[in-house]
Design a protein that fits this description.
By secondary structure, this protein is an alpha+beta fold. It has one domain. 30% of the residues lie in helices and 12% in strands. The protein has a two-stranded antiparallel ribbon with strand order 1-2.
């Protein structure tokens, strides 16, 4: 899934592990975890490195359920 296709209240998040494994996550404004429940306790390295794709299958599935997409 492409980051540019996320609806406005959603954004990409990923620590260095997610960056290296190509598994960036999705989070929603106002919550403090990713959609799949991964804690966001680190720097958003996927954002810093301008990653273009979301790779976490659980986040993608939950995002599609929430947005009827």
């Amino acid at each position: 899934m492409l980051v540019k296709d996320l609806k406005s209240e959603y954004y990409m998040f990923g620590n260095k592990g997610a960056l290296w494994s190509d598994e960036a996550h999705i989070s929603k404004s106002g919550i403090h975890t990713t959609l799949c429940g991964s804690p966001m306790l680190s720097t958003n390295w996927c954002g810093i490195e301008d990653v273009k794709t979301i790779g976490c299958p659980k986040c993608i599935e939950i995002y599609k359920q929430q947005t009827n997409g």
